[in-house]
Amino acid sequence: MQLAVLPGDGIGPDVINAALPVIETVGLPWALEYGDVGWECWRSGGDPVPPQTWELLGKTDTCLLGAITSKPAREAEQELPTCLRVNPPIYRSPVIQLRQNLGLYANVRPIRDLRNDQFNFVVIRENTEGLYAGLDFRPVPADLWEHVRVHPNAADSGREETAATIRLQTRTGIERLVRFGFAYAHSHGFDRVTVADKPNVLRASSTLLRGIVESIAEEHPEIEVEILNVDALALWMVTRPERFGVILAENMFGDILSDLGAGIMGGLGLAPSANLGSSGSYFEPVHGSAPKMAGTGRANPLATILTIAEIAEHHDFPREATTIRSAVRTVVERRHSSDVTYDLGGTATTTAAANAVLKEIER
Ligand code: NAI
Ligand code: MG
């Protein structure tokens, strides 16, 4: 298998460099090929995912990404070289480009209790539509304004001073996510699928969602299905995390719930993720580039190491995936101060924490 490695920005290279030796130590027969992505590519060439990187992604089987820095539009433009500022390109987040261009509609974020084994569930976030579909307007376009202006606040503010974002929900988007969720429940031994929604407020879109969920659920009588209010779901994730199996959520709900999940399992330093579609895939730790921590040796590499386990599992190396996870579990449970980074209460550097896992794998 050929794995594209895109370290990216900030702590991305730190955690990738520390985590990669796990691949060889656990005996995964993968060939690695490195590529560039992120802020430096934007600053030098006006595209955070340069053509050579797309080429690399085209010829490799999957991709491990470190992290990427994104900045607001004005700052992004100011950092371009002078020659590009006359007719500046528009900054498009590399992770969104990857998800859209590779058709990766499911963002899979496993939430495991590495300390006490009290819970094991997964948040699967829809990656392509919802509030992140890019239908975010200011001023509100004239045809949309017809609908928006009936709101008293919009009438008061006027078209120029009103912004409107459309939460796009489509049969195409919902159906493939729900099918993916049931398939994932089967392949991972979960007996419950929970769908996050807000049916009492977002009535029209919730009715569409419910119809699709109910008809697909009929094909899976052995799996229990429920649609929960997203706010109640958030509460129960904290108070009763053991009750969940597969949680499905539209883009924004899923973004928030999956970070909450990372918090429950002990922080962003432990949270892996996979972006999957009907063919392609890429994998990354959930955390971002934490620019202030870059190069300080403080970043926790375990999220990236667990992400390597996700790649292994997805590509039919279940034994290696289990070995990596148990090694991480042992290190986290033991919590020797010199083996874990600051976020887990230790004093280890990024490399020392990764080495502790390597040592466990070797044993
Ligand atoms: P962040 O995830 O970089 O940092 C949030 C907090 O978590 C910080 O306090 C940081 O110190 C801590 N943290 C993150 N990773 C850690 C690790 N491995 N070990 C220990 N502590 C860790 O999110 P933030 O600050 O919102 O964003 C920073 C930059 O990252 C932004 O430019 C943002 O656009 C980008 N970002 C990129 C993502 C990606 O590449 N998929 C995802 C999220 C943010
Ligand atoms: Mg997030």
Question: Summarize this, please?
Answer:
The protein is built from 16 helices and twelve strands.
Strand content: 15-25%
Ligands present: 1,4-dihydronicotinamide adenine dinucleotide, magnesium ion
With strands numbered from the N-terminus, the spatial order across the biggest sheet is: 9-8-10-5-4-11-12
At the fourth level of CATH, the homologous superfamily of the domain at 1-104 and 283-363 is: Isopropylmalate Dehydrogenase
Instruction: Specify the CATH class of the domain at 1-104 and 283-363.
Output: Alpha Beta
In one word, what is the shape? Answer: globular
Largest pleated sheet? 7 strands, mixed
Q: Percentage of helical residues?
A: 40-55%
Helix count from the secondary structure assignment: 16
The second-level CATH architecture of the domain at 1-104 and 283-363 is: 3-Layer(aba) Sandwich
Mean pLDDT: 95
The string of secondary-structure elements, in order, is: EHHEHHEHHHEEEHHEHEHEHEHEEHHH
CA radius of gyration: 21 Å
User: What's the total count of β strands?
Assistant: 12
Q: Per CATH, what is the topology of the domain at 1-104 and 283-363? A: Isopropylmalate Dehydrogenase
What structural class do you assign from the helix and strand content? alpha/beta
N-C termini distance: 26 Å
Low-pLDDT windows of residues: none
Characterise this structure.
The strands form three sheets. The chain has a seven-stranded mixed sheet with strand order 9-8-10-5-4-11-12, sandwiched between helices. The mean pLDDT is 95. 44% of the residues are buried. It has helices at 12-19, 21-25, 39-45, 51-59, 73-78, 82-85, 94-101, 142-148, 152-157, 171-188, 203-217, 230-239, 251-264, 302-314, 318-334, 350-362; strands at 2-8, 31-34, 62-67, 106-112, 120-126, 136-137, 164-165, 192-197, 224-229, 246-249, 272-276, 281-285. Helix content is 44%, strand content 17%. The two termini are 26 Å apart. It has a domain at 1-104 and 283-363: Isopropylmalate Dehydrogenase (3-Layer(aba) Sandwich). Helix 1 (12-19) packs parallel to helix 16 (350-362) and helix 15 (318-334) packs across helix 16. It contains 16 helices and twelve strands. With 363 residues, it is of the alpha/beta class. 1,4-dihydronicotinamide adenine dinucleotide binds at residues 11, 15, 67-70, 95, 268-269, 284, 287-290, 293, 299-300, 303, 343. Magnesium ion is lined by residues 255, 259.
